[in-house]
Amino acid sequence: MKQAKAQIRADELRRLIEHHNYSYYVLDDPEVPDAEYDRLMRELEGIESEHPELVSPASPTQRVSGTPQEGFETVRHRVPMLSLGNAFSDEEVADFERRIEQGLERQNIIFAAEPKLDGVAISLTYHDGLLTRAATRGDGEQGEDVTSNVRTIRAVPLELRGDDWPSLLEVRGEIYMPRAGFDAFNRKALERDEKPLVNPRNGAAGSLRQLDPQLTAKRPLAFFAYSTATRDGLPDTQFDSLHRLRDWGFPVNPEIRRVEGVSGCLEYHRRISALRPTLGYDIDGVVYKVDRFDQQAILGFISKAPRWALAHKFPAEEEMTRLLDIDIQVGRTGALTPVARLEPVFVGGVTVTNATLHNEDEIRRKDIRVGDWVVVRRAGDVIPEVARVIHQRRETELPEFQMPETCPECGSAVERVEGEAVARCTGALICPAQIKHGIRHFATRKAMDIEGLGDKLVDQLVELGLVNTVADLYRLEHEQLSSMERMGGKSAENLLKALEASKKPGLDRLLYALGIREVGEVTAHSLAAHFKSMQALQEASEETLIEVSDVGPIVASHVAAFFQQEKNLRVIQALSDAGVEWQPLEENVGEQPLAGETWVLTGALSMPRIQAKNLLEALGAKVTGSVSAKTSTLLAGEAAGSKLTKAQKLGVKVISESDFVEYLETQGVEIS
Ligand code: IVH
Question: Same structural domain for residues 120 and 144?
């Protein structure tokens, strides 16, 4: 290609690539598939290698350049990078607001409220629109020059957009590792027998400290801007300034809002706390900043933190404690789960004394031993887990963990199938732990819904030998029940009534209640809808089972194996003999006003999700899991997240649960 032509095409390609970067990282709305982006990059690389004189440092091909460094240079920040005061309670937020009201002698303060990202603080300096320096926070006065590494992060603009930026601009923000990238990175590391990253924050920090930018370039890092060192060339408020930064090409967190007073702050904290599991990156709280810069200036600073800002933290999700013992729990399917018994520790807002250790391999991989100091993690409603061991604090030799060879509940042999992580008790028929779990599950609300059959009662019934299979429940007599511990005549009567009332389940509920491995309520419903009778399902081969939607080879093999076992068929027969009559699903006859429509459910609904799905399907709609241009309606419950945003972007109709219930009423559909 002639030089003049090459120059024109190279400029065009750079513009296009920067444009796609902006759509992807700032607008979160990619215009072209990754393959097209890669094609443009390759074309530009081709031109630049043919015409090296056309390469400029701001070219998107120059993100990874330079050779490994010996170390990082120390740099002094032009304006110190401050820290934030912390609050953990509503009262502390109220105190913060009171102090501000006094300082400003006014009320109804407006704040910019932002998620507090759990990554690494960074300062980015732009001279005449070009990135010239990236520095870590360090001690706030001096940090390390990590420019070559930061240049590899595509979310960080090398060149600013627009032309109204000041000639010297220092933007501050957080470099973080999105959860998906972290998980993918660790999956690969484990496959290759390499050391996984401890958590996304350490992942981000470690990536920035790589001496070879080639390595940083391989780490999935992202960036959000949250402030500037000086206010030159910016609007008068934090909120508007962040929007200006966005125009100049910086990703800015989409959850930033203007709120009023302490009530606005607390409401924001609650909302973000609910959104937290859906965000895709780690945050450890929210930050409130007095929005107006003139008010910030009046308030000033105390030591190293501004008086006008506050970090309202979430309860810590990780804490340290001592591992006192490892117990083995036997689940419904006989799976043996090692459980950590811990010295009580307050983490994620609750006191934790037990945490899962997953399985034997996990214990070995993390080298967890009784007596160790461990880090316990509890995120949101997730079951607490032992995340890792603080090996430095292990003072003496501790014995390695051994999985027992016999079941601690029934003494049967423990077996671990080749290729499976889980060890199982082989005494399905005699193991009281498995029997108890099976019966508890049978009685749950989404299964047979037997009110009054609590866990303690199930334990007693099994221990007294009154119940060995779920069918035995229907043979219980008033006399037996009323003579049991903590069971009066009235309770016995109520339980018998509840058992009687549960005798006409839908086929789907019964299938779910039987506790077939891998058969949840949705699969049970699909199986019942497809086969229509227990008989047909019992006779189905694995090949026919796979034809059912939601049923893959693993589920099919579990279902087929279940019905091949004589003892299971005997239990089903015994249920029938005891008067349990399962009902085929109602045929979708009559009106199907939603035929041809595709619905998606999201957020927290007050009716069980499966019920909403069944109702929609009965009206003829198809229910799928993700929003696309083909979606007809999104039914959005409380705290709906990314699906709602996507639906709004695509212009998909969104209705609330109360609208949905109202609609059902107009259709004469009864909601039980
Ligand atoms: S503002 C003067 N905003 O929290 C205010 N900081 O202790 C300076 N952080 O290391 C910080 N998200 O990296 C601010 N939206 C946000 C933030 C945020 C995370 C980090 C920051 C700093 C620490 C402050």
Answer: yes
Give me the CATH number covering residue 611: 3.40.50.10190
Q: Tell me the pLDDT tens digit for each residue of 157-173.
A: 999 999 999 999 999 99
Q: Three-class SS of residue 156?
A: coil
Contact 423, 414 (CB under 8 A): yes
The residues that bridge with 339 in the sheet, in sequence order, are 327, 356
CA of 122 to the centre of ligand 1 (A): 10
Tokens in use for 423?
């060890």
* Domain-embedded: residue 672: no
**Model-level pTM?**
0.61
- For residue 114 and ligand 1, the question of a CB distance below 6 A is answered with yes
Q: Which ranges in 132-212 belong to alpha helices (H)? A: 147-150, 179-191, 200-208
User: What is the Å distance from ligand 1's center to 173 Cα?
Assistant: 7
Ligand 1 centre distance from Cα of residue 239 (Å): 15
Amino acid letter, residue 319: E
Tokens of 445: 């609300």
Closest atom of ligand 1 to 121 CA is: 13
The parts of the chain modelled with pLDDT lower than 50 are none
Instruction: Name the residue of 117, 245, 284, 308 to mutate for ligand 1: max ligand atoms within 8 A of Cβ.
Output: 117
What does the alpha-carbon distance between residue 220 and residue 44 come to, in Å, rounded to a whole number? 23
> Is 446 an active-site residue?
no
